[in-house]
Design a protein that fits this description.
mainly alpha, single chain, two-stranded antiparallel ribbon, 21 helices
């Protein structure tokens, strides 16, 4: 969209309007308890109508955003078209893993490897793995009995194990696909199917020190805090019996590992290795093998294969209870995220139609403070403000990525490393780190952790809230180091 110099000069006023809209989203969600979907949609209309009003008052003959309705619906529809099925499939996989005991099987595998010698490390690793497909809230509830029985068996503080588990879950929940939040953020900043595997790779790299920071907090600070949780009355073995016969380790891990392997194979197959005599790009794999690997490694196809694996290897009975009610529960969970993602797409389309991006470009032309690493810090701060104010990690991921996308070319965040969109990936990681800080009373996860761990409010703030702050700061430090190297 080509904007006149006169319209671009309105940038500072419209930027101020955008910040007012962000404040509105926070206030409407946190104070009025308005659903994030409605908050974002309302803010989108405020920004669009306000931008046109500013243009009118400044003497513009034509509206800056010519067709507000079309802009909003196209932004809403395009983001859902690109990411909707991926979110649905990822959520269904997580729901099946949760309900069939596959998550418990994953925990059992880790415990067998580590035994009782390192219970806190075991809980961190178990949380880190389980939250790849399962929402952190559900993962914590599922594994709560394991945490209690392990505390009784080893004599380690239940608060230590609680925080180790919660921070392990939190690390991958905010940073690593196929969790829906990071997938939505990646799509919002323009990362296509070929780049999703690299989001997973970088997400894993960043999430390891983040989980480690949470683990250290659990061992050094949370271990000194009290809990009113009653001692476990059942062993882990007794708890497992509630799920009946658990699936095999291969069946439990398959719906997660196989899609990731397929994504990796497609990315490797599409690696450029040079050009031919006519200047056409040569890829590592060609012919039918390239076509097959690319098809299987397209995110929507890879995750659908994961869904099929979950259905045919994990569900003991493929009846109405499992194929209708269980799938329906997954669709309900996915629908909320899809709607918020669509609303974020609508907001992003309106931002893109305003002169904000052009104004930011002119503002940073001779100032590198907010370019590259500085821009990553900006994304972190916006996400942290949204997360702390309104409580939802997923909403913070989606809203911040929506705001950042139109500004990224001006902020030096579209850098490529070969075929890897490293600038966009690091932006997702910075937003993810900000979306961790902090979990407190307006976050459902805070209450899940505190209530299932016997922590009073004061203890939960010291244990859980401060741990998420430490994780967020650790995450942005790691991201900034990577940014200094690659941007």
């Amino acid at each position: 969209m080509n904007l006149s110099a006169e319209v671009i000069q309105l940038g500072p006023i419209i930027v101020g309007l955008l910040f007012a809209c962000i404040i509105f989203i926070v206030f409407a969600t946190a104070k009025w308890k308005l659903h994030p979907f409605m908050s974002i949609i309302a803010a989108t209309y405020i920004l669009a109508l306000g931008t046109n009003l500013i243009g009118k008052l400044s003497g513009q003959s034509a509206p800056i955003i010519a067709d507000i309705g079309s802009t909003i619906t196209s932004g809403f529809g395009s983001i859902i078209a690109s990411i909707g099925l991926v979110i649905i499939f990822g959520t269904i996989i997580g729901k099946v893993l949760e309900k069939t005991g596959a998550a418990i099987k994953m925990a059992e595998v880790v415990l067998r490897l580590l035994g009782d010698r390192h219970p806190a490390i075991a809980m961190s690793i178990i949380g880190w793995i389980v939250s790849l497909p399962v929402f952190c809230d559900s993962g914590y509830v599922i594994l709560s009995s394991l945490k209690k029985s392990l505390a009784k068996r080893t004599g380690v503080s239940v608060v230590t194990l609680s925080v180790a588990l919660s921070t392990g879950l939190y690390a991958t929940h905010t940073l690593v696909p196929p969790t829906p939040g990071p997938i939505a953020a990646a799509s919002n900043v323009g990362i296509g199917p070929a780049g999703l595997f690299w989001v997973i790779v970088v997400g894993i790299i960043v999430s390891i020190p983040v989980a480690l920071a949470g683990h250290i907090w659990a061992r050094t600070v949370a271990s000194k805090l009290p809990s009113t949780l009653e001692e476990a009355t059942e062993t882990f073995e007794e708890y497992k019996e509630k799920f009946g016969k658990l699936p095999s380790a291969w069946a439990a891990f398959g719906p997660i590992i196989v899609p990731i392997v397929l994504l990796a194979a497609a990315s490797i197959a599409n690696l450029p290795i040079g050009t031919d005599a006519d200047g056409n790009q040569l890829l590592l794999v060609s012919g039918f093998a390239h076509t097959l690997l690319t098809f299987l490694g397209t995110p929507v196809n890879a995750l659908f294969i994961g869904v099929l694996l979950a259905i045919f290897t994990l569900l003991p009975k493929r009846d109405e209870e499992n194929l209708t009610k269980l799938m329906g529960a997954g669709l309900v969970d996915a629908a909320i995220i899809i709607m918020i993602t669509g609303a974020g797409g609508a907001l992003g389309a309106v931002i893109k139609a305003t002169p904000i991006a052009d104004y930011v470009k002119s503002m940073v032309a001779d100032n590198t403070a907010f370019v590259g690493v500085g821009a990553l810090l900006l994304a972190f701060v916006i996400a942290a403000i949204l997360k702390t104010a309104q409580g939802s990690t997923t909403a913070a991921l989606i809203i911040t990525s929506t705001i950042m996308y139109p500004l990224m070319p001006s902020l030096g965040l579209m850098e490529m490393m070969g075929s890897v969109p490293i600038g966009q990936i690091l932006t997702v990681m910075a937003i993810g780190a900000g979306s961790m800080a902090v979990s407190h009373v307006n976050d459902s996860y805070f209450w899940v952790v505190s209530q299932f761990s016997g922590m009073n409010l004061k203890t939960a703030y010291k244990a859980q809230t401060m741990a998420t702050l430490v994780q967020g700061i650790t995450g942005i430090i790691v991201v900034c180091i990577l940014g200094a190297i690659f941007l």
